[in-house]
Amino acid sequence: MEMARKNQEEITRKGNPRKPQGEEGEQMLQRMNESHAAVTQWALGFLNFGEEDRALDIGCGGGAALKKMSEKISKGHLTGVDYSPVSVELSRETNAQDIQNGKMNILEASVEHLPFENESFDKIITVESFYFWPDPAENLKEVRRVLKKGGVFLLIADIYQKEGLRESVLENIKQYHLFNPTKEEFLRLFDQAGFTETKIHTREGEDWICVEGKR
Asked: Which of 213, 157, 205, 215 shows the shortest CA–CA distance to 182?
């Protein structure tokens, strides 16, 4: 068990969670597709999808969240962006059928400069990527720019800053320089970015957080 844990830690270190790279990065993303499934499923339950929605996943990683959303958006269109070429490639493999059918496209791009017109999307999500955003306050404004009026943005993470985080979690925050706000800090960031009706969702017994912002 200890050997397996250390092996996973080494894969994560070499794979680079901030910007997945190489063979280890692909292995890490495949593992994350599974390990992030529960928190993603929980958080997506706060969205009322329309069958013709246009949806965006920022930092789409291995593409599992896009696949989940595609099941709920039958006639719309989905877009994924990630600034890691390894993530883009794996996301495209995970969603090859939707891409072939013209229902989805996945681009290499950063949250700093999203390559879309103003008010392009009904729903926007990000899963486990906010920790690494280069300028969170400004980046949230960029997200709001491409969200339609009345649209919803969900920020999904399996940790947030609070009392009682496990020592191993605190070590990861320090080792990977994770930006990990409190609930109050999330509310302030969303308010400053111009989102309205911001809500914080947490789940008892977990360290999960889902921040819901409307435009």
From this structure: 157
